């Protein structure tokens, strides 16, 4: 079976066909596929690169005919342009993206570019390989920031990707602080925050951060990220902003006066995805707290509005037919790191 997006908020379950395998492509059996918020936005409002009908899905764990497990770098590139030949294939002039330009992983079978297959180590729990794409995107962003041990980094947005960004920053020796205005979301993240000893707050009076990341599309959060930077600080423009919004020129001038550096971050390279698998292998217990639910594909329509609203964490479709996971995360334990609105925790982030 495959799940086909036939129009805005229109989904059909259809039998999976068996098209001929073209040269350079490999047929895979999909085992798990994560639901990205981009998938939910496509369902709700379309996308500039989307042509209906289309099978969405780009956070995949699949197997070939020999049982070898792969995740799939979700791009198909020309291999000739200056970006492809300089190791920045995520910026390929002729980029085609799985789930947008060609069918993706919301299907029991998938035809994927052979050069995009990345082996998944046996040490990784199968469904956690679905984190490879979002973790790889974060790795791409933080590589540009070049974080140093002891540097303070503020992450705006406490969703799945924001929390992953904080975790990756911490593994690089930085001291992350997550700002999330939704107190309920901070409480839901309590198990992850407790396991990683990362602090999340609704707001902070601290400033002079060495680096900042916007991990949500709110222009206000982006503006706050600029104001929180120290002189010479670095800002990762990670999440695209809501359309047709205004940013004050006085705010942009702060980048000028503080000699702050702004780094765009779009997608990921294959090497970012390889690095992501290494990080996942080392932090599986923590990342498991970000798995909201593992559900059969028939529940996709029920899950998409919730994913779109950003109410929870990662939801994964199970194509193995063995789904036995909860449909919602249990109430998180209360930890010091998960208490919302307690700005006295700012003392943890003062310069020593």
UniProtKB/TrEMBL annotation:
InterPro entries, per the entry: ADH-like_C, ADH-like_N, GroES-like_sf, NAD(P)-bd_dom_sf, Zn_alcohol_dh
Region (Disordered): 323-352
Keywords per UniProt: Oxidoreductase
Sections of the chain in a coiled coil: none
Pfam families in alphabetical order: ADH_N (PF08240), ADH_zinc_N (PF00107)
One annotated GO molecular function: oxidoreductase activity
Segments forming domain Alcohol dehydrogenase-like N-terminal: 26-122
UniProt entry tagged with the keyword Transport: no
Protein name: Alcohol dehydrogenase
Species name: Desulfosarcina ovata subsp. ovata
């Amino acid at each position: 079976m495959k799940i086909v997006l036939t129009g805005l908020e229109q989904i059909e379950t259809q039998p999976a066909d068996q098209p001929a395998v073209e040269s350079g492509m490999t047929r895979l059996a999909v085992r798990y596929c994560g639901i990205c918020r981009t998938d939910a936005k496509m369902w709700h409002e379309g996308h500039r690169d989307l042509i209906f009908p289309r099978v969405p899905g780009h956070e995949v764990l699949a197997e070939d005919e020999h049982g070898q497990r792969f995740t799939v770098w979700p791009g198909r590139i020309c291999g000739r342009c200056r970006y492809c030949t300089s190791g920045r294939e995520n910026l390929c002039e002729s980029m085609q993206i799985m789930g947008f330009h060609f069918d993706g992983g919301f299907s029991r079978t998938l035809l994927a570019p052979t050069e995009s297959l990345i082996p998944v180590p046996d040490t990784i729990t199968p469904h956690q390989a679905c984190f490879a794409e979002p973790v790889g995107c974060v790795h791409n962003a933080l590589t540009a920031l070049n974080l140093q041990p002891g540097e303070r980094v503020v992450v705006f947005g406490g969703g799945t990707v924001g929390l992953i960004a904080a975790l990756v920053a911490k593994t690089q020796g930085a001291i992350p602080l997550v700002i999330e205005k939704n107190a309920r979301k901070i409480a839901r993240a309590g198990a992850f925050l407790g396991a990683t000893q990362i602090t999340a707050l609704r707001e902070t009076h601290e400033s002079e951060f060495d680096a900042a990341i916007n991990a949500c599309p709110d222009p206000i959060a982006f503006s706050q990220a600029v104001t929180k930077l120290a002189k010479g600080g670095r800002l990762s423009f990670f999440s695209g902003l809501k359309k047709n919004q205004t940013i004050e020129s006085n705010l942009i001038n702060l980048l000028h006066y503080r000699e702050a550096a702004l780094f765009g971050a779009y997608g990921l390279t294959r090497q970012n995805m390889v690095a992501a698998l290494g990080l996942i292998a080392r932090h599986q217990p923590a990342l498991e707290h970000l798995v909201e639910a593992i559900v059969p594909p028939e529940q996709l329509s029920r899950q998409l509005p919730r994913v779109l609203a950003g109410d929870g964490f990662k939801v994964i479709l199970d194509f193995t037919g063995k789904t036995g996971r909860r449909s919602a995360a249990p109430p998180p334990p209360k930890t010091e790191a998960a208490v919302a609105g307690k700005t006295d925790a700012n003392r943890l982030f003062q310069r020593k």
